[in-house]
Specification:
D-Maltodextrin-Binding Protein, domain 2, alpha+beta, 2 domains, globular, four-stranded antiparallel beta sheet
């Protein structure tokens, strides 16, 4: 039998399991919760479980690699966020005498990927791992434990888009504890300076193009109509926002059960033509700025009128003293439909190498309880991941936050980015190269798509 280190080496070498998709966006991610595999189902509307939970015969340490808000802060800061951590750790340990929960922060993005690789190869992997958009690759190599049999009656309380990135062959391998979604943001001071009515945001792509051009013309170099984040290497920050428009037009980025790139999807032609035109209303040079914070704060500084925004933008706008920022659904194409993309989504999953797989699965479902979910927004400013928590939260937040909650609760099309199993960085580079040419040349869109598809397919060989 192959030793554990060698098996994990093969696992990672087999397809670049963890890629930059770990970072899909620059936003803070989330974590999952719910009832357990060995306890009776939990009423999500209550704080206490129906059953106190299983006990252990001897001390057990459950090691969890967690997103930052659940990890102890050594410098004494983040007092409010400790409430979220303490509730999770203290309550779980109370229900499982003899169990000590150890929460560790091993970074995010590329840092987390490297740390996880080292831990797996070194035989020091945790019981529970955290991430955003790489779980399908692990599941494909039989490295994770499916959670379907442990969801009991909570599945209807989950929002499918939040765990879609952890679904493989019809099975659910991870759940999100906190999450995010894209909406549409506007600076009313800029819009009104251009002579437009900010109470009536654009509803269609045609409306957006027309208003963006009008605002740019009226701004005469002082302000512009739209903030467009463009391509930077293999970064998917810009692709995330493009994916929203693609979803609205049913122009999928992948095919064959999302195993292969579909960059020459004919349905994407009008989307790319729309983006090419929209880019003309973006502040000069901003499209290719690699600093995402600089790109999107232009709107807060009265340099731009409209942009796609993540649900964390509501607090970000306040911190940057946006004079009058408001939110609404993303404008849709004439023959399209409302759609959005899940972002800032922290998923937890159980490694098959876990020493305590049943207990690890209990932890993940534990985090779906209202008692935990209800603390997410007030402590870390993120959106909870369950229907019950979002519904309860909605009447108590601003109209800005309500707009994003509406998308989470009511959108019939919440998507995630594809997870390429081989050379994902090269594949996303091919797409970004296409976007670069889209915004800097007059090359026909169809030709650019064909070139991108060939480059992407070559990367999978």
């Amino acid at each position: 039998m192959m030793s554990t280190p060698r098996r994990w080496f093969k696992l990672f070498a087999a397809g670049t399991l963890v890629s930059m998709l770990f970072a899909a966006c620059g936003a803070v991610p989330a974590s999952p919760s719910s009832s357990s595999a060995t306890t009776a189902p939990v009423d999500v509307a209550t704080t206490e479980p129906v059953d106190a939970g299983s006990t252990t015969q001897e001390p057990i340490t459950l090691t969890i690699w967690a997103e930052g808000s659940l990890v102890p802060v050594l410098d004494g800061s983040a007092v409010t966020t400790s409430k979220l951590r303490e509730m999770a750790k203290d309550q779980f340990e109370k229900e499982h005498p003899g169990v000590t929960v150890v929460l560790e922060d091993h970074g995010w993005d590329e840092v987390l990927r490297q740390n996880l690789t080292n831990a797996l190869l070194g035989g020091t992997a945790p019981d529970v791992i955290v991430g955003e958009n790489f779980f399908q690759q692990y599941a494909a190599l039989d490295a994770l434990i499916p959670l379907d049999d442990r969801l009991f009656d909570i599945k209807e309380n989950l929002i499918p888009g939040t765990y879609q990135a952890a679904v493989y062959n019809g099975k659910i391998y991870g759940l999100a504890a906190m999450t995010g979604v894209f909406g549409f943001e506007r600076n009313c001071e800029v819009i009104q300076d251009a002579g437009l009515n900010c109470d009536n945001p654009p509803q269609t792509w045609d409306d957006l193009l027309q208003q963006a051009k009008t605002i740019t013309d009226k701004g005469a170099g002082n302000y512009y109509g739209y903030t467009l984040q463009g391509p930077v290497g293999f970064s998917v920050g810009g692709i995330f926002r493009v994916a929203v428009y693609l979803a609205q037009a049913d122009a999928s980025l992948c095919k064959d059960d999302c195993k292969e790139p579909f960059f020459d999807n004919p349905k994407a032609v009008p989307v790319l033509k729309f983006l090419r035109e929209l880019n003309k209303s973006t502040p000069p040079g901003l499209t290719f700025n690699a600093d995402e914070a600089q790109v999107y704060t232009q709107l807060f500084q009265n340099k731009s009128a409209y942009q796609i925004a993540g649900s964390w933008h509501t607090n970000w706008a306040k911190e940057n003293k946006c004079p009058d920022c408001r939110y609404s659904p993303v404008p849709t194409p004439k023959d399209g439909h409302p759609a959005s993309v899940i972002v800032g989504n922290v998923i937890y999953a159980v490694l098959k190498e876990s020493k305590h797989p049943d207990l690890a699965a209990e932890w993940i479902t534990f985090l779906q309880r209202d008692a935990f979910q209800d603390l997410i927004y007030p402590t870390v400013g993120r959106l909870p991941a369950t229907r019950s928590a979002l519904t309860k939260l909605k009447p108590n937040v601003s109209e800005a936050d309500q707009a994003f909650i509406d998308v989470m609760l009511n959108s019939e099309d919440l998507q995630v980015l594809p997870q390429w199993q081989k050379n994902p960085q090269l594949i996303w580079t091919a797409y970004n190269d296409m976007l670069t040419k889209l915004f800097t040349t007059d090359t026909p869109v169809e030709q650019l798509m064909d070139e991108a598809q060939k480059a992407a397919i070559a990367a999978t060989q």
